[in-house]
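My convention is simple: the sequence line spells out the residues, with the fold written below as integer tokens. I include a record here:
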Amino acid sequence: MARIRFRGCPITQFASILPQQGANPPRAKGVVNLSTKKLGENSVLDTLLQSGSSKCLFPRASAQGLDAVLLNTAGGVTGGDSFRFTANAAEGTTLTLTTQACERAYKAQPRPYAQISNHLTVSSGARLNWLPQETILFNGSALDRRLQIEMDPDATMLLVEPLVFGRAAMGETLTDIRLRDRIEILRDGAPAFLDAMRFSGDLQAHLCRPHVANGAGAMALVVFASATAEGQLAPVRHLLPDTAGASLIQNDMLVIRMLAKTSFALRRALMPVLRRLNNDTLPRCWML
């Protein structure tokens, strides 16, 4: 059997394929920018730019709003990857954004983080639904994720960010991760909501503390900014499990925090709440 030589070394099943010292392995990068416009009574696509490992799909829908599905063709993120997404829901339009599958934060090298940056704007009289599926953290992952939403005073926004701590079905525990996560909502240019966390080290031990998460394997944040938010408080509380809570931080902003033992339990608890806050509809990607 012939052997191929590389830099003076034969390549066989025993050869090392580790990168040379100082080499920069290839990294995934993706960019999507999109905006909507009004066409008659319907919300339609106005502009779209996509490049690299980020793609956007637009399933056909009979509703008057525009649905967009984000796709990471790299299959996940790891240290050094960079993904940027921007979207603008123009005046009077409705835009629903989701992901084709769960995002996965894989084990990273010691130094670089995976970077995910999302920037959304909601114009006057518009509605934006930010409904990504779960982000799953793998042991050894390093993720820096930022979401900023800028709203006009009379805009409406529904947001969910579900986070899963390891693959429970495979017995994975997160004993070594790095996580930076920041969610910021601005209304009329002024800060209306800020949620930020940073962690490095043994997340499993931290989550097992009774006053932190009591061993939960997944969590979610839901924010509903709307003139109807106050009227949704009592009905939403009725739908929540014992490991979740809802409160009004402003008369027009409802915040829900939820813990669950597994990602399946989390989604099962989230779906009726999101349906309630989204006119009894959900993207088909969310179906169990």
In short: Residues 235 and 276 are 8 Å apart (CA to CA). Helices lie at 203-207, 229-239, 263-277. The chain has one domain: 41-193+208-286.
